[in-house]
Design brief:
single chain, 4-stranded antiparallel beta sheet, 0% helix
């Protein structure tokens, strides 16, 4: 049973930075694709950033140039460096992983950006 656990959310002023971390535990399965989604109140969950084995990355247009996704040296870890945060970035951020068709989700971490 794979579990994804996020950390690093919190409250920050507009223009500030946060770094989210995600680590998988509970299984020896390798997760080649990992990423981050967010969900604001009353809105659908939306992909923020993804990275795949080989290093390719995708970002939603609204965060390009401000957010950076990376994989850790430890297996099945991922990070999201968020800079120049805006109030509209406020949401619950979920870690996502995919292992050849099987999706895994974390429990979510709240990010709140005050104006």
């Amino acid at each position: 049973q794979v579990r994804l656990v996020e950390s690093g959310g919190g409250l920050v002023q507009a223009g500030g930075s946060l770094r989210l971390s995600c680590a998988a535990s509970g299984s020896s399965v390798i997760i080649p694709a990992m990423g981050w989604y967010h969900q604001a109140p009353g809105k659908q969950r939306e992909m923020v950033a993804k990275t795949r084995s080989g290093g390719s990355t995708n970002y939603v247009d609204s965060v390009k140039g401000r957010f950076t996704i990376s994989r850790g040296n430890a297996r099945n870890t991922a990070y999201l460096q968020m800079n120049s945060l805006k109030p509209e970035d406020t949401a619950v951020y979920y870690c996502w992983g995919n292992n050849y068709g099987s999706d895994y989700w974390g429990q979510g971490t709240q990010v709140t950006v005050s104006s």
